[in-house]
């Protein structure tokens, strides 16, 4: 399926083409590029132009560049004045030419899980587009928009931020029919002098980009909900005034059952993953499904077989010994902040373990918390779920504060980096244990997930 022809891409960006080509998608990593895609030579930690030749050799159909790299003089290229500016132009053109109903999602935690819920729920009701990864920044959002098929019925775009003033221009590019703020919490605190209220104002700016007649959906349970509230919009939460109100949540061993009252009447739905923290995002997703005119009952049924994406609560059974219970590994390693760590600890506390097995938390530093960071790490020791957690292993200088604050009988290994902790993994877990791994992305906690999964006795050894 052709997504962009050379002619159309040049018209959208004002660039010039080398060769006659068409592409069916985009890639930014020469190591994972696939045939048919356009390689976008972004300039970030490294200059993507240095990898254009490798991307083309790996099968990329064309490359978006602002200079012709050595060895690419006759290559299929789209040459523009600036790659980032051209990418944004492609994103705006991709949004303008599609008739899809577009949903924009932001929040301090759970954006990607909510995006994936919406993709899953809507995909049975029409062609649904969303980025495969967590593409929510100044290059991820236009990449997502540029890749929307013209014939798509629905599109879901995740929007994130690290600093004030980032969300509004991204939302203007997205021009969503529905915009959602799923939650607001203490994340990126060092960039906001007034703390959570400032974060709430930044999140609320997602509503400024709504198309005429669009729907704003916001969480009514927060201390800063009044900052999010808009006249004539849609709220969700547990409070009595919420339009979509969560009444009951029962997290089982492999699913979560929920009951809610809605403008459509009472509904019950089941999420195909354990975790009470998924319930609110699922309810918000159903409200968004309704707002784009899709069938809520069908979407609720689809939630039954939804599972969280990798690194965001995905579970793995790790068999240490063939005749004993597996380790229940909860991979929540993609990112962390106080709210998401608290939710993950609640999930671990609610996880059933066999007799003599343990609940174990392996936690890495939570970044970008500013001066409050050390106290917020130490404060995790007071989280109610900690009463049921048997062992806490920690990684990073900030998590040293938690290591020192937990009960002596809970205090496990502490190391400053994941590689040093990884050497202890074999001794840290026993058959039947439930093990949570969580930390900020820069802590590379996924290394520990990979190390634990490698202990599986059922995997072929080579």
Automatic annotation (TrEMBL):
Gene3D superfamilies: Mur ligase, C-terminal domain, Mur-like, catalytic domain, MurE/MurF, N-terminal domain. It is an enzyme of class 6 (ligase). GO terms for biological process: cell division; cell wall organization; peptidoglycan biosynthetic process; regulation of cell shape. ATP binds at residues 107-113. Its EC number is 6.3.2.10. The keyword Nucleotide-binding applies. Residues 23-67 form the Mur ligase N-terminal catalytic domain. One of its GO terms (molecular function) is UDP-N-acetylmuramoyl-tripeptide-D-alanyl-D-alanine ligase activity. Involved in cell wall formation. Catalyzes the final step in the synthesis of UDP-N-acetylmuramoyl-pentapeptide, the precursor of murein. Residues 105-289 form the Mur ligase central domain. HAMAP family: MurF (MF_02019). Keywords: ATP-binding, Cell cycle, Cell division, Cell shape, Cell wall biogenesis/degradation, Cytoplasm, Ligase, Nucleotide-binding, Peptidoglycan synthesis. This is UDP-N-acetylmuramoyl-tripeptide--D-alanyl-D-alanine ligase. PANTHER family: UDP-N-ACETYLMURAMOYL-TRIPEPTIDE--D-ALANYL-D-ALANINE LIGASE. InterPro entries: Mur-like_cat_sf, Mur_ligase_C, Mur_ligase_C_dom_sf, Mur_ligase_cen, Mur_ligase_N, MurCDEF_CellWall_CoF430Synth, MurE/MurF_N, UDP-N-AcMur_synth. It is found in: Cytoplasm. One of its GO terms (cellular component) is cytoplasm. Its main location: cytoplasm. Pathway: Cell wall biogenesis; peptidoglycan biosynthesis. It catalyses: D-alanyl-D-alanine + UDP-N-acetyl-alpha-D-muramoyl-L-alanyl-gamma-D-glutamyl-meso-2,6-diaminopimelate + ATP = UDP-N-acetyl-alpha-D-muramoyl-L-alanyl-gamma-D-glutamyl-meso-2,6-diaminopimeloyl-D-alanyl-D-alanine + ADP + phosphate + H(+). It holds the Pfam family Mur_ligase. NCBIfam families: murF. Belongs to the MurCDEF family. MurF subfamily. Residues 324-440 form the Mur ligase C-terminal domain.
């Amino acid at each position: 399926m052709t997504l962009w022809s050379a002619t159309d891409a040049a018209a959208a960006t004002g660039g010039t083409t080398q060769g006659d080509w068409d592409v069916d998608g985009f890639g930014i990593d020469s190591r994972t590029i696939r045939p048919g895609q356009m390689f976008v030579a972004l300039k970030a930690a490294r200059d993507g132009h240095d990898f254009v030749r490798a991307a083309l050799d790996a099968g990329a159909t064309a490359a978006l560049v602002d200079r012709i790299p050595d060895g690419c003089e006759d290559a299929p290229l789209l040459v523009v004045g600036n790659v980032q500016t051209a990418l944004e132009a492609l994103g705006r053109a991709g949004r303008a030419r599609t008739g899809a109903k577009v949903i924009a999602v932001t929040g301090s935690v759970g954006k990607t899980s909510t995006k994936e819920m919406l993709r899953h729920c809507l995909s049975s009701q029409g062609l649904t587009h969303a980025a495969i990864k967590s593409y929510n920044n100044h290059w991820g959002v236009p990449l997502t928009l540029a890749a929307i098929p013209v014939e798509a019925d629905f599109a879901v775009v995740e929007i994130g931020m690290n600093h004030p003033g980032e969300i509004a221009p991204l939302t203007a590019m997205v021009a969503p029919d529905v915009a959602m703020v799923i939650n607001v919490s203490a994340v990126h605190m060092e960039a906001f002098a007034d703390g959570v209220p400032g974060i709430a104002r930044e999140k609320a700016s997602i509503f400024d980009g709504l198309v005429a007649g669009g729907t704003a959906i916001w969480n009514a349970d927060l201390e800063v909900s009044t900052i999010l509230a808009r006249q004539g919009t849609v709220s969700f939460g547990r409070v009595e005034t919420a339009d979509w109100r969560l009444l009951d949540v029962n997290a089982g061993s492999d699913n979560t059952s929920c009951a809610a009252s809605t403008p459509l009447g009472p509904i019950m739905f089941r999420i195909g993953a354990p975790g009470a923290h998924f319930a609110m995002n699922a309810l918000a997703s159903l409200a968004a499904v309704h707002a784009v005119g899709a069938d809520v009952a069908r979407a609720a049924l689809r939630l039954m077989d939804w599972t969280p994406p990798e690194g965001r609560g995905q579970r793995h059974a790790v068999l240490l010994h063939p005749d004993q219970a597996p380790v229940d590994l909860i991979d929540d390693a993609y990112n962390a902040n106080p709210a998401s760590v608290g939710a993950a600890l609640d999930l671990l506390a609610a996880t059933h373990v066999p007799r003599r097995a343990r609940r174990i938390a392996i936690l890495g530093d939570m970044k970008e918390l500013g001066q409050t960071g050390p106290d917020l790490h130490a404060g995790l020791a007071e989280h109610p779920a900690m009463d049921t957690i048997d062992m806490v292993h920690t990684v990073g200088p900030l998590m040293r504060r938690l290591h020192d604050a937990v009960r002596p009988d809970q205090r496990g290994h502490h190391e400053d980096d994941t590689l040093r902790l990884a050497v202890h993994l074999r001794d840290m877990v026993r058959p039947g244990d439930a093990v949570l791994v969580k930390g900020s992305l820069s802590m590379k906690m996924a290394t520990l997930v990979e190390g634990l999964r490698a202990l599986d006795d059922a995997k072929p050894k080579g």
